[in-house]
Amino acid sequence: MSAESAIIARGLTRQFGKLIAVDHVDLDIPVARIYGFLGPNGSGKSTTIRMLCGLLRPTAGTVNVLGHRMPRDAERLRHKIGYMTQRFSLWEDLTVEENLDFMARIFGLEAARRASRIRRRLGEYRLESQRTQRAGTLSGGQKQRLALAAATLHEPELLLLDEPTSAVDPQSRRDFWGSLFELADRGTTILVSTHYMDEAERCHGIAILDRGRLVAEGSPRQLSEGIAASVIEIEADDVRAARRALEGHDFVRSIAQLGNRLHALLVPGMSSPEARIEELMAAARVTAKVERVRASLEDVFVAATGFGGSDVAITTDQSSDPRCSFTPTDAG
Ligand SMILES: Nc1ncnc2c1ncn2[C@@H]1O[C@H](COP(=O)(O)OP(=O)(O)OP(=O)(O)O)[C@@H](O)[C@H]1O
User: Fold this and answer.
1) Residue 147 dihedral angles phi and psi, to the nearest 5°
2) Residue 260, domain member (yes or no)
3) Are the C-beta atoms of 191 and 29 separated by less than 8 Å?
């Protein structure tokens, strides 16, 4: 393992019967960085994360996490990693403080350290006023802060976060990301799966998964510059007419509407794509401003996942429970 890599995976594969949920994925995730998994529903993000933290046994491939071979060394890794899923997985009938105390005991913190860590986390995650409130009655954002406080009680070197912000509002998401950056600044490696482009944009590195395969990887800037498409923005007085004029042409791979603008992804290598689009607009008598723009991460996502559409849906995965154990399972 290289000194800078927190996670190295080679040929990581997981099958469920005939379905290949994760298909020969290679990963090198550097320490103290925020690394994002982006992918449509069912692309294998959760399955990959569960294999990385030892909850699920790979069908094939090797995984090394913080110098430990997984899943063989899962038990030894337990104290070095924190895991948080999209589903609130603490005890709803216990108070905020009781939840933290319980988790601190699970992580084996002795009494004095337990008390000081809990006090610190309550402050850091703004939960002091909710200290004696039952977790089940917290708001979505408070629950998420509690889950992060619990996942970081033992000061893990690596945090694995599976769609942690899917149930909270934009302000809570922003706060949450502020906390992630602080953790990364202090040396924690963070792997986070998300459906949100703005979140992926904040990551130091991103892997895009599609049908179990890793289809693109790099920093947001590298991905944007390396996109296999020309991105043309069309600002039109009649957006619907502009869209109609673009439809049905082989060289137009996808069209997405953003207010009164369209983003068209064209096949790469066209000599002057703007001129070609201007011709189409003129022929359809649509007044439009046409310019070539830098690819957004959403454009990259659409191109990397086969131009299948830009809508990224959010689902709730009920399949994993971090409380149960760290024993790898074959059944998932
Ligand atoms: N325990 C399991 N048994 C059978 N199939 C499974 C199991 N867990 C996951 N799958 C399947 O593996 C594929 C990948 O699922 P996974 O949950 O990893 O995707 P995901 O990218 O995390 O999706 P989402 O964004 O919807 O949470 C899906 O087709 C899913 O139905």
Assistant:
1) -60, -40
2) yes
3) yes
- For residues 75 and 94, membership in a common domain is answered with yes
Q: Are residues 92 and 74 in the same domain?
A: yes
User: 112-130: per-residue pLDDT in tens?
Assistant: 999 999 999 999 999 999 9
SS3 string, 124-183, reads: HCCCHHHCCCEHHHCCHHHHHHHHHHHHCCCCCCEEEEECCCCCCCHHHHHHHHHHHHHH
**181 and 68 within one domain:** yes
Instruction: Indicate if 109 and 242 belong to the same structural domain.
Output: no
Q: Ligand 1 pocket by C-beta < 6 Å: which residues?
A: 16, 19, 21, 39, 41-47, 315, 317, 319, 332
Whether residue 283 lies inside any domain: the answer is yes
Pocket probe for ligand 1: among 13, 37, 45, the residue whose CB has the most ligand atoms within 8 Å is 45
Pocket test for ligand 1, best of 46, 199, 314 (most atoms within 8 A of CB): 46
CA of 56 to the centre of ligand 1 (A): 12
Task: For residue range 8-30, list pLDDT tens digits in order.
Answer: 999 999 999 999 999 999 999 99
ipTM rounded to 2 decimals: 0.97
Give the tokens for residue 15. Answer: 């099958």
Expressed as residue numbers, the domain containing 78 is 5-223
Which position has the token pair 């149930």? 167
Task: Report the residue among 16, 86, 312 best suited for mutation to probe ligand 1: largest number of ligand atoms under 8 A from its CB.
Answer: 16
In a domain, 327, yes or no: no
Query: Is 305 a domain residue?
Result: no
Atom from ligand 1 closest to the CA of residue 47: 18
Atom of ligand 1 nearest to the CA of 14: 12
Domain ends where: 223, 246, 278?
223
Residues 6 or more apart whose Cβ sits within 8 Å of residue 10: 26, 61, 62
Query: What is the reported pTM?
Result: 0.84
| Overall domain count for the chain | 2
Query: What is the 35 CA–ligand 1 centroid distance (Å)?
Result: 20
CATH of the domain at 142: 3.40.50.300
